[in-house]
Amino acid sequence: MDREARVFAxxxxxxxxxxxxxxxxxxxxxxxFIEKPDSFSYADFFKGYLLPNLPCVFSSAFTEGxxxxxxxxxxxxxxxxxxxxxxxxxxxVPVANCGVxxxxxxxxxxMTLRDYISYWKEYIQGxxxxxxxxxxxxxWHLCRDSSAExxxxxxxxxxxxxxxxxxxxxxxxxxxxxxxxxxxxxxxxHADIFRSFSWSVNxxxxxxxxxxxxxxxxxLRDCHGSLPYDVTSPTLLDSRLHPMRDxxxxxxxxTQEAGEMVFVPSGWHHQVxxxxxxxxxxxxxxxxxxxxxxxxxLQQELCAVQQEIIxxxxxxxxxxxxxxxxxxxxxxxxxxxxLLRSSTDSMxxxxxxxxxxxxxx
Length: 361
Prior knowledge:
InterPro entries: Cupin_8, JmjC_dom, JMJD6_ArgDemeth/LysHydrox. Interacts with ETF1. Interacts with the ETF1-GSPT1 complex. It comes from Delphinapterus leucas (Beluga whale). Belongs to the JMJD6 family. By secondary structure, the protein is α+β, with helices and mostly antiparallel strands. It folds into 2 domains: about 25-215 and about 250-285, Cupin (Jelly Rolls, Sandwich); about 290-355, no CATH class. It has helices at about 5-15, 40-50, 65-70, 80-90, 115-125, 140-145, 160-170, 290-310, 320-330, 350-355; strands at about 30-35, 55-60, 90-95, 110, 135-140, 175-180, 185-190, 195-205, 205-210, 250-255, 260-265, 270-275, 280-285. A 9-stranded mixed beta sheet has the order 1-2-11-8-13-6-5-3-4. Strands 7-12-9-10 form a 4-stranded antiparallel beta sheet, with no helix packed on it. α1 (about 5-15) runs parallel beside α2 (about 40-50) and α8 packs across α9. The N and C termini lie close together (about 5 Å). Residues about 330-360 have low confidence and may be disordered.
């Protein structure tokens, strides 16, 4: 980070005076498209998008040197099944069934990549239909489970990554994923885990994104207080089921082409549809710009768990510990000592309050 960007960041954090950034996003009618790598610096991204927490799309020029874009894709721009089978065919991968709703997500099973690609080919041959349903390979930890050398080069804009640095040090887990699936596969409405940032690159294929700025999702809740599963469903037009829907602005829609890279800011709810047979690489990450949002989210999750099991407080040994464990599970992950403390009497991230918020480059 250059001196100008650092001064800009220091001024920004001082203006917050210990409070969370405002959840009011400036009204946007489009998402910025960054065309040329040579004319876009880390400081430009930091000041224009990371700190203001705004989405953007990077052109395919930013990823043209990646091995995956050369080796995982056929000359016609389709997934290179032969290469993937040869190099990863026996790897066991998680696969979601997009046609089955399980709460606000999809049930998963595990199979070898070889079996999934066999299904995928049959799905294409069946005119994108199968008695097995619409299956989507999601959350494959390629970096954790095998070498990803040569597959991609981490963009400098996303290189300050406390979340994966923490897990890399433990050599246990990570938040780096491969997604791949046929036309019609999709991810239901959600915000990313722990209110992290994320980035997503299409190695091949095209995606349609629906973005809602932080706070807008509240107007989408139904009469029971639940968020929608599918924001494209006609049921959202029913004012009896969704009484606040008229207070929500239309989503920002983005069509992501092959090679392009989407930056998803912290706390932005979104839904994503594959318009073609698509492979993507996705990372979640955290740094000083969104750590306060993450901590606030974890506090809310913990309070919700405490209220759910408050009747057991006096009879359950280590009640606070159980609440934290259940809260982490509900958030689909476990940060362990990175954030959570053994006592809930002082709910603050020690290294945020006493450390350096500006470790972002």
